[in-house]
Amino acid sequence: MLGADLLYTLEGVSDPDGDWMTRHLDVHPRAATDIALLRFGPTANLELFQYTSPDQRTEPPRNSDVGGHRLTVDTEDFDRALEYLRSVDGARVQGEPQEVKEGPAAGCRWIYFQAPWGMQLELRQVPDVLPFEAAGEERLYRPEPGWWGPGKHGVPGARGVLQAGYTVADLAEAVAFHVNVLGGEVLYRESLRFDADYASRQFAIDQAVEVETAVVRLGPVTNVELAQYTVSDQRTERPRNSDVGGHHLAFFVDDVDAAVAWLRTVPGVEVLGEPQLIQDGGPIHGDYWVYFKAPSGFQMEVLNMPDGMPYERFTDARRFGPSDSWENR
Question: How far apart are CA 276 and CA 287, in angstroms?
């Protein structure tokens, strides 16, 4: 449906007798997972997990729940892309196309849609210059055109992942972490209110909502939209990695050990276990990684994958990264 390229799969990741899954992934010790990594557009790698776990929650979080999340697909031809999504079996388009009339993102056209398993996504078309860009030096990352060229299947006119969106419990805390710890830059903030009818049609939230948002630029190719919702029945317990709707954000680093040593000095950060070097001869032999938790419990990862990973012997597709310098924009 989206036109991604499959890079590799990993099956049966588990520790039947020990506590490795709990120490390194913060899930039930008897949890097990299958994994697939996809290249999604010019600058995004998307890792999908299917867990089995004795205590798994299977209802994904809503946009308004803490731990709600979505991916935004950038398109050059909004109307054609929307027509395509409405024709895809299993895709559920929510409401009608919207255009932002005022504020820092005025001129954007957008609509939410769901994947067959309930994951929230968004289709968006962004003008060449947004109001906040005309007023200052901050710039939104925009995927370059050309990924979905002639002969490429998927969303017509799509250019890649414009941003990832995450619902947080405390917007001020989340923004401070993304800026002061992760090195991000705030692009703009908004305060929005929607009545119950609009929220139900456009966001699949069956009540009036208030939402505070901040868009943060992380490095050269990543926009993150952080949102704090005010609703009467918000689910405040974050999904774990093993729950449907669990998620994490991964950062490629030159030196995992140095990154971990620094993260251990940051108040509120919890590094899970110790860095793990994969040496099983499988598709990602040589991958060096570790998970950590931000103060709010948001799961993240630092990793380093050397060039020439074994999976490359079996496909012409390549993961994105490492990117150019963090400051190269």
Answer: 8
pTM: 0.95
- Of 12-21, 137-146, 158-167, 294-303, least confident by mean pLDDT is 137-146
Average pLDDT over residues 130-141: 95
Q: Is 11 helix (H, G, I), strand (E, B) or coil?
A: strand
What are the CA-CA distances from residue 138 to residues 6, 132, 223, 290, 329 (Å)?
34, 8, 12, 31, 10
Closest by alpha carbon to 114, among 61, 47, 37, 158?
61
Q: What are the DSSP E strand ranges found in the chain?
A: 5-14, 32-39, 45-52, 69-75, 92-99, 109-114, 120-125, 158-167, 185-194, 209-218, 222-230, 249-252, 270-271, 276-277, 288-293, 299-304
DSSP state of 83: H
Indicate whether 152 pLDDT > 80.
no
Which tokens go with 64?
């308004």
| Residue 30 tokens, joined | 């008897």
pLDDT for 220-239, tens place per residue?
999 999 999 999 999 999 99
pLDDT at 36: 98
Nearest Cα neighbor of 93 from 71, 126, 65, 115 is 115
CA distance 329 to 17: 47
| Dist CA 115 CA 126 (whole Å) | 22
The pLDDT, as a whole number, for residue 150 is 62
- What is the distance between the alpha carbons of residues 135 and 159, in angstroms, rounded to a whole number? 26
What local confidence, expressed as pLDDT, does residue 151 receive? 65
Burial degree of 249 (CB within 10 A; 0-12, 13-18, 19+): middle
Distance CA 185, CA 224 (A): 10
Across the chain, how many H-helices and E-strands are there? 6, 16
